[in-house]
Amino acid sequence: MKSIIWFGIFIAVLAIVGLTVPVFTTWHTRDVASVGDVKLQSTTQSTHVVPVALSVGGLALGLALIGLGVYSRHFA
Fold first, then answer.
1. Which of 6, 14, 41, 52 has its CA 20 to 30 A from that of 20?
2. Cα 35 vs. chain centroid, distance in angstroms?
3. What is the pLDDT along the chain (76 residues), one digit of tens a residue?
4. How many of the other CB atoms lie within 10 Å of CB of 19?
5. Largest Cα span, the chain
6. DSSP category for residue 1
7. How many CB atoms are closer than 10 A to CB 69?
8. DSSP 8-state secondary structure symbol assigned to residue 13
9. 8 A C-beta contact, residue 58 and residue 11
10. H or E stretch covering 66
């Protein structure tokens, strides 16, 4: 298969994941203070939201790339 088709599949799969799991959480641990062997750490939680418009646009782009790759392969 052409690389444009694989790239289109990759973008489409990422978009589908963005549509099915639009919110995800990450944790970040950092050292606040350190005295000898003793460390004081703080863990922060961040919530990230993937916009629906971005996922739909990514899906449309992925499908367009797949279609372009199939079209160019078929008629080339």
1. 6
2. 39
3. 689 999 999 999 999 999 999 999 999 999 989 888 899 999 999 999 999 999 999 999 999 999 999 998 777 6
4. 15
5. 70
6. -
7. 19
8. H
9. yes
10. helix 52-75
CA distance linking residue 26 with residue 35, whole number of Å: 28
Residue in the block written with tokens 């782009």: 61
For the chain, report the end-to-end CA distance as a whole number of angstroms: 13
Structure tokens, 76: 């080339």
pLDDT score recorded for residue 36: 86
Sign of the alpha-carbon dihedral angle for 46, 49, 54, 58: positive
Residue whose structure tokens are 């750490």 = 41
Model's pTM, two decimal places? Answer: 0.74
pLDDT at 37: 87
| Ramachandran sector of residue 36 (left: φ over 0; alpha: ψ -120 to 50; beta: rest) | left
